[in-house]
Specification:
By secondary structure, the chain is mostly helical. It is 79% helix and 0% strand. The protein has two domains: 36-221, MFS general substrate transporter like domains (Growth Hormone, Chain: A); 235-426, Up-down Bundle (Growth Hormone, Chain: A), CATH 1.20.1250.
Length: 432
């Protein structure tokens, strides 16, 4: 507002010169916030990184038969690629987050994307299963690091009042990987071979790496930030962060106990088979993707209500599916009710993930990257524990599996509801 006052000597013109500036400031619509084309491009690159990484992670799911035939190994052996991937990611996330804590954020991001690109190149050229497993291990090493820093980087690009929405944009990339990336690579693997699908991921990773280097700022940490990151953060003594992490662990285990066998649930409980099964599975992902913009604004302004609402929806879904599983077999009614439950499950489960990560970063104080790293490590442990427990319960009965998910999600929901301050947004964050 100071510049117009030094503009010109004629007094009558001052109001006219000042007016456009005042109108300019007023004309910045509040709903748009900081979403300039530059920031939108930067967030799109971050979402692209998440999309490419998660698509690479999930590739064996759709390419199991193709990899098995090409490399002359059993389908169960190929299936272990996912389990080992999660194990490597869980073990390496926290140490790598600490090791890179003092680096400029762009350098850390580029490291993960370069590892992704090289790992996919190795995988595409793998002459045998051992080399393929090694290539995926390289990808897994920096998987948790990437997902730990994406959201903190996104929040640094926007005002603190929009951090939840920025985090949600990153999760859109993850949702697209499930809805678009994984089915696309599966189709390519079936039609033209899995190596072509991996080659496409390699090229995409290279493009995203170059885009990140071009459009993202270096993001050097200042002296105050450097003093509070890495080992100095002492996140293990942060009661709020530890509580959120434990809640995340319980909720993720509860979710993956049943999600690992969602195809069986759709087929045997809901009663949807054949091509319609694939459509309902796609509806799960589309519902999750559609929920992202709906939870973005509440995530910034009413995070506690948003988290509890989504968790309640997941719990109700498992209760409904458990009751259907105890029924006398699929009917038209169970198909309709079950289809709705699957869609709600997809929307709520995909909506609650960015909420919990945002809560972890807020609780992490001056080291959101380290807090995010702890969250991601716990998440990977939850995936492994949930999948293993789900397999054991599935052998006993599907109702027991769904009931266990309902119980664990119910426990997490009860703790969330009892806590009054766990998801509070600090006053200072809205004033920055």
């Amino acid at each position: 507002m100071g510049a117009p006052r030094t503009h010109g000597a004629a007094r009558p013109r001052r109001p006219l010169a000042a007016a456009p500036v005042a109108v300019d400031a007023a004309c910045r619509p509040e709903p748009r916030g900081p979403w300039t084309p530059r920031i939108a491009t930067q967030l799109a690159v971050l979402a692209g990184a998440a999309f490419t990484y998660v698509t690479a992670e999930l590739l064996p799911v759709g390419a199991l038969p193709a990899i098995s035939r090409d490399l002359h190994v059993s389908v169960p052996a190929v299936g272990t690629l996912l389990a080992w991937y999660a194990l490597v990611a869980a073990v390496t996330t926290v140490p790598l987050v600490r090791w890179t804590a003092h680096w400029p954020r762009r350098r850390t991001l580029l490291l993960t994307l370069i590892c992704l690109t090289v790992s996919q190149l190795i995988s595409a050229m793998a002459p045998n299963f051992a080399v393929l497993a090694g290539g995926r291990a390289l990808c897994a090493v920096t998987h948790g690091l990437l997902l730990s820093i994406l959201a903190p980087i996104a929040t640094r690009l926007v005002p603190a009042s929009h951090s939840g929405r920025a985090t949600t944009v990153v999760y859109v990339g993850i949702g697209l990987a499930v809805v678009v990336g994984s089915p696309l690579t599966a189709a390519m693997s079936l039609l033209w071979g899995w190596r072509l699908a991996v080659t496409l991921i390699t090229a995409t990773a290279a493009v995203v790496t170059l885009a990140a280097w071009v459009v993202l700022p270096v993001m050097m940490l200042n002296d105050q930030q450097l003093a509070t990151v890495g080992r100095s953060a002492r996140h293990h003594r942060n009661r709020q962060l530890v509580t959120i992490s434990l809640l995340t662990l319980v909720a993720v285990i509860g979710h993956y106990i049943s999600y690992t066998y969602i195809v069986v649930i759709i087929r045997d409980v809901v009663g949807v088979r054949g091509p319609n099964l694939a459509w309902l599975l796609a509806a799960y992902g589309v519902a999750g993707l559609g929920a992202m913009p709906l939870v973005a604004r509440p995530l910034d302004h009413r995070p506690r209500i948003a988290v509890i609402s989504c968790t309640t929806a997941i719990w109700v879904t498992f209760v409904v599916l458990t009751l259907l599983a105890f029924g006398h077999g699929p009917t038209t009614a169970t198909a309709l009710i079950g289809t709705g439950a699957i869609a709600v499950w997809g929307a709520a489960a995909n909506g609650v993930s960015p909420m919990l990560q945002a809560a972890a970063m807020r609780a992490g104080g001056d080291d959101p990257d380290g807090a995010s790293g702890l969250y991601m490590a716990v998440f990977q442990v939850g995936i492994m524990a949930g999948s293993l427990t789900g397999g054991l319960l599935y052998e006993r009965s599907v109702p027991a599996m769904l009931g266990a998910s309902a119980v664990l999600i119910g426990v997490a929901l009860a703790v969330m509801t009892a806590s009054r301050q766990m998801f509070d947004v600090p006053l200072a964050s809205g004033q920055r």
